[in-house]
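Hi support team,

I've been running sequence recovery on a batch of backbones for a student project. Most finish fine, but this one hangs at about 90% for roughly twenty minutes before it completes. I'm not sure whether the input is malformed or the queue is just slow. I've pasted the structure tokens below so you can try to reproduce it. Let me know if you need the job ID as well.

Thanks,
M.K.
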């Protein structure tokens, strides 16, 4: 059983920066049924341009006959604030003006994305999460949620993510925003504004998601006499156009800024002390040749989250490996969850 729905939060939604949004819509999808004990919830946090349909974009890890399947679990994925896919975003109507927000939309942070998740969880009556999982921007949400509300999360799985977004990652995002801002239509107050800039931004992003080896494996020319019309060029153009058909430049602009805001130490004693607040049984997974979120960032998470487990994987796809290497991830995560059950049994025997 699957449900596609939208929850409207009728009270003022106060952002971390103090600004407020009215009547925030949160689009979400659920799969399967909540069991009598309410202990079979798997909550997936999605990455930058994904949506609430986790069975579509994380195939192999989620779906029938997959590790996280709706026959056994109650799976929830919510579209993040600012995104193109149903949750309140820059193309939504501003109730004050009666027109879309566009660049008048207030900036928001990872913590604001998490706040929306928490409001949805309360609306759905979810007060216990068996597994909270996310990669990249989704991992940033998951780690922040586990810091603020760790008691309700049994198992935390963080993939290709970090505790603080790096200067390197911010530079990539700023370069993409510079590309978008060169498109004059971005300032024209129209839904398709900035699409040429968005196409260029996506091309920049791909270089951080993939690797040299991935391009050699998939885009290398089979002949030696070409001086133009290269496969790699066509690929960059195709991927840029593909995103423009399903996303908008304004959401992309704001979500990149939200990623840049990620710092679990903000307003807290330190980054390390913030990570120590996580009490969930935690697995951190990194990708050895991830250019955007280098392995050192996952090693830092695992080192500073109490009793966290750490695994690294190899992938020709670099950062995108967390979406692609689902067979390897299934093996690692299933073993982790089995060990988690064994730890619980041992703990119960000790306290009996």
């Amino acid at each position: 059983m699957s449900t596609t729905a939208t929850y409207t939060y009728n009270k003022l939604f106060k952002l971390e920066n103090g600004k407020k949004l009215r009547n925030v819509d949160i689009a979400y999808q659920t799969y399967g049924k909540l069991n009598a004990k309410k202990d079979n919830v798997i909550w997936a946090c999605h990455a930058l341009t994904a949506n609430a349909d986790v069975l579509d974009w994380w195939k192999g890890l989620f779906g029938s006959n997959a590790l996280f399947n709706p026959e056994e679990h109650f799976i929830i994925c919510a579209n993040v604030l600012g995104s193109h896919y149903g949750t309140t975003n820059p193309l939504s109507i501003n109730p004050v003006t009666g027109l879309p927000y566009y660049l008048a939309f207030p900036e928001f942070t990872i913590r604001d994305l998490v706040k929306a998740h928490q409001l949805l969880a309360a609306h759905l009556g979810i007060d216990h999460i068996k597994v909270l999982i996310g990669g990249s921007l989704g991992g940033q949400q998951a780690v922040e949620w586990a810091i603020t509300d760790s008691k309700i999360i049994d198992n935390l799985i963080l993939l290709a993510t970090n505790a603080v977004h790096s200067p390197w990652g911010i530079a990539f995002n700023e370069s993409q925003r510079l590309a978008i801002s060169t498109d004059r239509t971005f300032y024209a107050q129209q839904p398709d504004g900035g699409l040429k800039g968005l196409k260029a931004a996506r091309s920049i992003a791909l270089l951080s998601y993939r690797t040299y080896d991935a391009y050699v494996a998939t885009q290398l020319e089979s002949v030696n006499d070409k001086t133009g019309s290269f496969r790699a060029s066509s690929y960059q153009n195709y991927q840029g156009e593909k995103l423009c058909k399903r996303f908008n430049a304004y959401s992309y602009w704001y979500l990149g800024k939200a990623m840049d805001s990620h710092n679990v130490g903000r307003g807290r004693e330190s980054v390390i002390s913030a990570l120590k607040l996580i009490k969930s049984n935690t697995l951190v997974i990194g990708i050895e040749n991830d250019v955007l979120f280098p392995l050192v960032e996952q090693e830092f998470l695992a080192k500073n989250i109490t009793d966290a487990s750490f695994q690294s994987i190899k992938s020709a796809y670099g950062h995108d490996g967390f979406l692609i290497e689902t067979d390897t991830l299934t093996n690692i995560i299933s073993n982790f969850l089995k060990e988690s059950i064994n730890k619980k049994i041992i703990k119960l025997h000790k306290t009996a």
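--
Follow-up from support: It reproduced on our side and the slowdown came from queue contention, not your input. The chain has two domains: 2-165+263-351, 170-258. No action needed from you.
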